[in-house]
Amino acid sequence: PNDVYSLDGILVFGLLFVCTCAYFKKVPRLKTWLLSEKKGVWGVFYKAAVIGTRLHAAVAIACVVMAFYVLFVK
């Protein structure tokens, strides 16, 4: 019930946010609409997309580990 306020809920949200922004970077219309701003509040989307594309192997491994944790351990 209180998954949003737990550490694993925040990690899941962060991973999903980074993966979603990295996907947005691959779609041309979304890239120009959402990722054009590099500073300010909208810059968070751009920075998450850069993290997702540069560290794609580490993000993918973290997603698999978190999925295993959420499905089988928690």
TrEMBL record:
Which InterPro entries does the UniProt record give?
Kish-B, Ksh1
Topology of the protein relative to the lipid bilayer? Single-pass type I membrane protein
Location of the protein in the cell? Golgi apparatus membrane
Its keywords, alphabetically, are: Golgi apparatus, Membrane, Signal, Transmembrane, Transmembrane helix
Q: Which GO terms describe its biological process?
A: constitutive secretory pathway
Q: What is this protein called?
A: Protein kish
Tell me the domain of life: Eukaryota
Coarsely, its chief localization is: Golgi
Q: What does this protein do?
A: Involved in the early part of the secretory pathway.
Gene Ontology cellular component annotations, sorted alphabetically: Golgi membrane
| Alphabetized Pfam families for the sequence | DUF1242 (PF06842)
> In which family does this protein belong, per the annotation?
Belongs to the KISH family.
- Record field: transmembrane: 6-24, 44-72
